[in-house]
Amino acid sequence: MRNYILLLLLFCMQGLYAQEVQFTATPSKTKLGVNEKLRVEFTMTKDGDNFEPPSFDGFNAAGPSQMISNSWMNGKRSYSKTYTYVLTPTARGTFTVGQASIVIDGETYKTIPFQVTVTAAVARPNDPSAALAENAGKGIHVVAEVSKTNPYVNEPINVVYKLYVSQDASVRGTRQMDIPQFNDFWSQDIETDSRSVHEGTYNGESYRYIILKKVVLYPQKSGRLEVEPLSMELTIDVPTGRRDFFNRPLMTQTTKVMSSGTKYINVKPLPENGRPDDFSGAVGNFDFKVTPSKTTISNGESLQLNVAVSGKGNLKLFNLPKPVVPSSLEMYDPEHKEKITIPLSGMQGSISDNYAIIPQNKGKYPIKAMSFSYFDLTSGKYKTITTDEIMVDVLNVPGTSADNQDTASGVNKQPVQSTAQFRFVALDTKLQPINKKPFFGSMLFYILLFIPFLFIPIVMLLKKQKQARDNDVTGNKIRKNNKLAKKYLSEAKKHLGSKEPFYVALEKALHNFLKAKLNIETSEMAKPNIQELLESRGAKPETITDFIKIMDSCEFARYAPSSGEAMQQDYDNAVSVITKLEKEI
After folding, report:
1. Cβ neighbours of residue 512 under 8 Å, at least 6 residues apart?
2. Is domain 284-394 in CATH 2.60.40, yes or no?
3. In the UniProt record, does the keyword Iron occur (predicted)?
4. Do 20-119 and 473-584 share a fold?
5. What is the pLDDT of residues 386-439, one digit of tens each?
6. 454 in helix, strand or coil?
7. Which among 124, 307, 368, 432 is least buried, having the fewest CB atoms inside 10 angstroms?
8. pTM value?
9. In 3D, which of 227, 232, 207 has the Cα closest to residue 217?
């Protein structure tokens, strides 16, 4: 009984020890504007290796920076290691930051994914570096200029987004961060040349400016509507505070996300007083015409009736009236045509419906007068245009009178002659042998029959080898670490010139190489222990010294400036030392 209690206590202690290891991801916020930044911290309570961050889809990631904390309280050691990334959104939307992973004492730990919602740009971005960015953006403004702030429903307004730059400021590059979404508006972008630089004034001062975007908007409902901001990432020249040999200020470049800010317009509803019954939402200044292709029809001809509206207004946003014809005139669905141009002032041109009408009987038939109503912005009143009634005279229709219509139309009946050739179906079947040897019992039959049995010993041998390989825990661990060493060495080569990721990958390559060759864990990687193990495996002292120097270089390079030449030299030295140790061990 005592032995059982002891075993139970050991299991509980093991469970408590396992709970001590924690690996978590902590975002500074889960909702931010497209012009804000997000900080994510990956924290572990025990040192690990092979840290793999998530892909950060939807963000530009900077980092990682590392922070290690060691403390002793009441005889207990508290340890934490944190990898910190700063994320800049590339677009609005909801994005998932996936799992990060790390290996601690041979076990792989993963963080819990979380979602981040990126909204439109905010007026005051909450950014730790906001003060510096504010100084960098002096004399630079992203502005949205709205042509009218109190239009009617379906009255065109235009919004022009501009980038103003003072004479003292300098912008090296621009990138559009966020495309405004014009909810509750019908919108149309206007082509513009964003490379042309203009001279103008902003707040009474002289500025240079470029036009970033032009758009025509037609509000679709009344009330207070929001015009979303345009956000730009700008590369800006800022002074370093130093001067060159000729006493000119030395400049450096930084990036800043700037927004035009949200604009609001108050949209007036169309008046109810005097609204015609046939009003379908047309707003502007229009002309209305109904034109028949002919009014006299004979010998089976058809009539084309064109219903057209032309002028300036919301031509794409209403329906044309439909003609009413007698039942003796068969009218087909119309062919719709549009000839519309959309400059910055709004839509102009014409729309039309072309109906095909075919008479069914002889006689005179009226097409009723048609009317079209619209709201005139100039007078602020409804107007109605009414056309005249159209009389269609059908002289004759083929087929309504068998003899008269055939004679009038000049149609002579001809007897139908059958030219098809028929033959009788044969009732007697004649079968002939194919003269081929049967497959059953042939040589190919027996070969295909016995081939599967030949594969049985091969499959058993491969299965036995796989089981032996799976049972070789130490060998599998060595092979895995060897692959990881090659992987991270290749990754370090890709990051040459980028200090932080280069030395992180190079350090991982060295650690996994030692794990593969010496069969040790991360917690055993003290430098005296590494030196002793390498000497016991036959490595030369000068090779061991070079290897430890590279490890020291990886450890200190993150916190000191490093050039591309130094990175290349460290990489070449690492490859050379690893190759020597491969031969010596």
Report:
1. 49, 50, 481, 482, 484, 485, 488
2. yes
3. no
4. no
5. 999 999 999 887 765 544 444 334 444 444 444 444 455 666 777 766 656 677
6. helix
7. 432
8. 0.54
9. 227
